[in-house]
Amino acid sequence: MRVLYIDSLFLFEFAADLTMLWASGKLCGKNRKKLRLAAAALIGASYSVAAVFAQFFTAMPIKLCISALMLLTAYGRERGLWRLAGAYFAMNALFAGLTLALGIHTVRALLLSLAFSAGVCAIPFRFAGRRERAELVIRSQYGEVSLTAFIDSGNKLREPISGGHVIIAGKERLVPLLPPQAQNVLRSAGDRGAADMLPELGAGYRLVPYRTVDGKGGLLLAFRPGGVYIDGKKKEGIWAAMSPAEISMCGCDALIGEE
């Protein structure tokens, strides 16, 4: 009977730790790798079993050290680890409090309590992590531009062939990144549309279809810069699309979607 209890405790603690680590990473926008999460949950479950046999393991400093080891195992030394730790500890505390207060004993009730804890913690941590702006640096062999981008959660624009994310900025902002021939074509375009200019620009340019919230749509000329840096981090596979009109939204001069 004792062995059955230990087995059940290990399995439940493993599942609970895995869920809370995954949920914490989800709330904080972290990259969640299955093997690392499983290894961290294994540490937590093993600790819970060890605590049954030795009171020494129930001391608060030991608990904190084990929790820190789990977080480092799951997510390494990523930026924002303190915020992630806050989400994880808040979820743990709420889950433990519900379990004790309600006298929960069945597996189903425990799982519901765990889901409820994750949902409650999602509210403040989700809003705390929401950003509205990002600083962009876009480079090519012809120049470099710095922009402030508005992060638009409704912007799902993708380059249709590669599926890459698309930054939208005014044509005049992006023209300095292009070769002289392309600059001349764009600056002498007049009322011509993107599709009319494409044959004159040569290889490396794409047409990106877009549609606004009011149902209007069209095509934007896009190119892939030599380097795109968002808040100092280099991002791969990003395309820059040129809007005929300048972007001006909340003091920003470019638009990007949420990653």
- Determine the number of helices (DSSP H or I, runs of at least 4 residues): 8
Tell me the structural class: alpha+beta
What share of the residues does DSSP label as strand, in percent? 15-25%
Overall average residue pLDDT: 80
SSE ordering = HHHHHEEEHHHEEEEEE
Main β sheet profile = 9 strands, mixed
In one word, what is the shape?
elongated
Give an account of the 3D structure.
α1 runs parallel beside α5, α2 runs antiparallel to α3 (60-75) and α4 (81-102) packs antiparallel against α5 (107-128). This protein is 49% helix and 20% strand. The protein has helices at residues 2-27, 34-53, 60-75, 81-102, 107-128, 171-174, 180-187, 194-201, and strands at 133-140, 143-152, 166-170, 205-211, 217-223, 227-230, 233-235, 239-243, 254-257. By secondary structure, it is α+β, with helices and mostly antiparallel strands.
Give the SSE map.
Blueprint lengths: L1 H26 L6 H20 L6 H16 L5 H22 L4 H22 L4 E8 L2 E10 L13 E5 H4 L5 H8 L6 H8 L3 E7 L5 E7 L3 E4 L2 E3 L3 E5 L10 E4 L2
Parallel strand pairs: 2-9, 3-8
Antiparallel strand pairs: 1-2, 1-6, 3-9, 4-5, 5-8, 6-7
Helix pairs in contact: 1-2, 1-4, 1-5, 2-3, 4-5
